[in-house]
Specification:
Elements lengths: L4 H12 L3 E5 L8 H11 L5 E5 L5 E2 L2 E2 L13 E4 L3 H14 L3 E4 L9 H17 L2 E3 L5 E4 L6 E4 L7 E8 L2 H13 L4 E6 L8 H9 L6 E6 L5 H15 L3 E5 L13 H5 L2 H12 L2 E3 L2 H13 L7 E6 L2 H13 L3 E2 L4 H10 L10 E2 L6 H13 L5 E6 L7 H13 L5 E5 L6 H9 L8 H19 L13 H13 L7 H10 L7 E4 L2 H11 L3 E6 L12 E5 L2 H18 L7 E6 L5 E10 L3 E8 L2 H4 L4 E5 L4 H10 L17 H17 L3 E11 L6 E3 L2 E5 L3
Parallel strand pairs: 1-2, 1-5, 5-6, 6-7, 10-11, 10-12, 12-13, 13-14, 15-16, 15-17, 15-18, 18-19
Antiparallel strand pairs: 3-4, 8-9, 8-11, 20-23, 21-22, 21-23, 24-25, 24-27, 25-26, 27-28, 27-29
């Protein structure tokens, strides 16, 4: 169980708000990590007391040094350890003995270097637990808190960032230095800035929850290289978004990295690790970003401006071309061009030149000065049909860039609606951009980025206000029967269920299976086929025959008792020919489904996220186009519908181009029942229902085939 929020706060408070800091391993040599960390704490105006610990030095930068941690005569809240990895455990032991509760371990040489380092990491974790200490790292850049009452730069970054309302968490220390430089150039401030490295003790989830409760933080940004506790991350992020009302933005590396190995099921091979991460973040309401630039483009919109109440934007420009480009970008991001009221258009007519375009986008003409921008912005933002303003400027010879920037800022601050800006160019507009950034008006080099940020801000507002119904729990299932079948197969050493057992597990969860039975002779096959109803499909039931079609062990459209006898003998003969000596349990006989559209449902057990549910259309759509969607189980009803609509071919089920409207309600119920099965039965490693035949609306659907792979004991 994760720690309570109070417990997380108590563990991290000595790290973020210490009254005293010991730098353990400090040196006098400029340009080294130990010296730079001590120097940063000292020069960046830390509001507490600092103690350098150095076995060789009597003082550092005029501050008395101590040979050992235990020599410090006063209480210490935070220790920053910069010794080589081989002696970190000795320093940490002394920190524990002195009663220090918060530690940042900068030193590298732990899990990231292999088994020996992993053993050292486990040693320091045990020492921390023995003394009730909490630590960030090892192998990290450090921690920065810009709050004036603390003002701690316990890192070896080149500079202390400005104070702001954005919290940044990163698994990569090297990326942190680049981000700080980028943010400095854009005049972006931070509340907290953390490089957490190997997260051996304090995790990214702990830090995210702390920032979710931090009054100084409005927006949480995270760079992640791995997600080891994915389900816990999703739950924590969802709570922060819904309860704290704070957006969480994630830049996750490794988008193109595939899973460890392709599994034997469609779901296993299709559910690459990044696709699962993508689905999980979407389910949590997290904004996933592709680049650092995109992350900060979104962050400044969310941190600096009111959230848009709708998608209706007013575009104000002094040039027609950029106005058209912005219109195209806005429509592409599913924004709407606001339709101005009669009153607004009347104001435009009176106040703007006759050559000005008073429709949307509003073109105030190339010679526009600050007064025209003021009128256009104020009138548009006063209009109840407008949810926000996108302001564009191109530098003309008569353009008073700085004055316009000041006026844009003044008008924006007078309204509870967002204003974003794009002063296009670089050198000529630089001073105007600086004014906008200094007054917290989000600025974008390209109008496309501006529109994308507006759309993400609106999406976040929608997500924050969304109330999700819990996942459906059906009372008519027989979980005990399903588990008994799965446990018996695992106990027998099997790696997958037989077709008949797979159908019995699905039947226990009331999924719409077709009538079926196992036949062990040709005569029994004829009786079974007559009982389940013609036409039937027949396939060998054998653990030794995986690809049944390839060896002629599947026959379809069997339509009489005589044909069933013949099919039985043919299947056994084909198996004997192609797989001599294969163990055969019988022939599985199943009624064939009526006409309909083929879809695929699946489950995969992911090591980080647990059970993942898949939906897609069958045939070419899954085989060639990988047109599928995923969600983490249990899947709430709203996300069931969302994942269905994410599949590009979904209109094939809803009457596209005169096709029949299929029973999509029945698909929803199947996904919900499959989600419950996946949660209830961890014995299932992978599962395919392929195909699920979906009939016309109101006629339901039927499981035509299923494969269940079992988890290792």
């Amino acid at each position: 169980m994760p720690d309570s929020l109070d417990a997380v706060h108590d563990r991290l408070e000595p790290i973020f708000s210490p009254r005293s800091v010991a730098v353990v391993g400090a040196t006098r040599v400029p340009g080294t990590v130990p010296y730079d960390i001590f120097h940063n704490i000292l020069k960046d105006d830390f509001q507490g007391t600092i103690y350098p610990v150095s076995p060789r030095e009597r003082s550092i930068a005029g501050v008395k040094a101590y040979k050992y941690v235990l020599d410090i005569p006063d209480p210490v809240d935070l220790a920053v350890i910069v010794f080589p990895s081989s002696v970190v455990k000795l320093a940490l032991e002394q920190c524990g003995q002195l009663g220090i509760k918060g530690v940042i371990i900068i030193s590298a040489g732990f899990r990231e270097v292999g088994p020996g380092g992993a053993a050292r990491e486990e040693e320091i974790l045990q020492i921390a637990r023995k003394y009730g200490m909490s630590f960030i790292g090892p192998n990290c850049l450090g921690v920065i808190n810009t709050e004036p009452t603390v003002h701690l730069n316990a890192s070896f970054a080149r500079r202390m960032p400005a104070e702001g309302s954005i919290g940044f968490l990163s698994q990569s220390g090297a990326l942190c230095t680049a981000v700080l430089d980028y943010a400095h150039a854009k005049n972006i401030g931070f509340s907290k800035f953390v490089s957490f490295g190997n997260k051996a003790d304090i995790s990214d989830i702990d830090l995210m929850r702390y920032l979710g409760d931090d009054p100084a933080t409005k927006v949480i940004l995270m760079y992640l290289e791995e997600m080891t506790h994915g389900a816990e991350f999703v739950d924590a992020a969802r709570r922060i978004i819904q309860e704290a009302g704070k957006p969480v933005l994630v830049l996750k590396s490794g988008r193109t990295q595939q899973g460890a190995s392709a599994a034997a099921s469609h779901t296993g091979s299709l559910a690459a690790s990044d696709e699962i991460v993508d689905a999980a973040l979407r389910q949590a309401g997290v904004i996933r970003c592709q680049t650092i630039e995109e992350m900060f483009n979104n962050a400044i919109a969310l941190a600096y401006q009111p959230l848009p109440k709708g998608r209706r934007v007013a575009i104000i420009t002094n040039a027609g071309g950029p106005g058209v480009l912005t219109t195209d970008a806005a429509i592409q991001e599913r924004l709407e061009l606001a339709t101005f009221s009669d009153h607004t258009r009347e104001v435009f007519k009176r106040s703007l030149p006759v050559t000005a375009n008073i429709k949307n986008p509003v073109d105030v003409i190339g010679d526009a000065r600050a007064d025209r921008y003021r009128v256009a912005m104020a009138s548009a933002l006063e209009d109840e049909n407008v949810d926000g303003a996108l302001v564009i400027l191109t530098p003309q010879s008569m353009t008073d860039i700085d004055t316009i920037a000041q006026e844009v800022s003044n008008v924006a601050q007078a309204f509870d609606k967002p204003t974003y800006s794009s002063f296009m160019g670089e050198t000529d507009v630089a001073s105007g951009i600086a004014i906008l950034q200094d007054r917290n008006i989000p600025h974008y080099v390209l109008p496309e980025s501006m529109c994308r940020a507006f759309a993400r801000a609106h999406d976040f507002r929608t997500e924050r206000e969304r109330t999700l119904a819990p996942a459906v729990r059906y009372a008519d299932v027989d979980a005990a029967a399903a588990r008994a079948t799965l446990d018996a197969a695992i106990a027998a050493g099997r790696t997958q269920l037989s077709p008949s057992d797979a159908m019995s597990v699905l039947e226990a969860y009331r999924l719409p299976i077709l009538r079926n039975a196992l036949a062990r002779s040709a005569d029994e096959a004829a009786l079974v086929a007559e009982h389940v109803g013609f036409p039937v499909a027949m396939k060998v039931e054998s653990e030794d025959v995986v690809h049944k079609f390839d060896v002629g062990a599947v026959l379809l459209g069997v339509d009489s008792p005589a044909s069933a006898r013949e099919a039985y003998d043919t299947i056994l003969a084909n198996v004997e020919k192609h797989r001599p000596g294969a163990r055969i349990d019988g022939v599985f006989v199943q009624r064939m489904a009526g006409p309909g559209e083929e879809v695929i449902l699946g489950v995969k057990r992911d090591p980080a996220f647990g059970a993942v549910v898949m939906f897609g259309l069958g045939g070419i759509f899954v085989e060639v186009f990988r047109d599928v969607a995923f969600r983490i189980a249990p899947v709430p009803p709203e996300h069931v519908r969302a994942m269905m609509h994410e599949v590009r071919a979904f209109p094939m089920l809803t009457g596209a181009r005169g096709r029949p409207h299929r029973d999509t309600d029945a698909i929803e119920e199947c996904i919900q029942r499959l989600s419950q099965l996946a949660v209830d039965c961890p014995q299932i490693q992978e599962l395919d229902i392929n195909p699920l035949i979906v009939h016309d609306r109101g006629d339901g659907c039927a499981v035509a085939d299923a494969r269940v792979l079992l988890a290792s004991p």
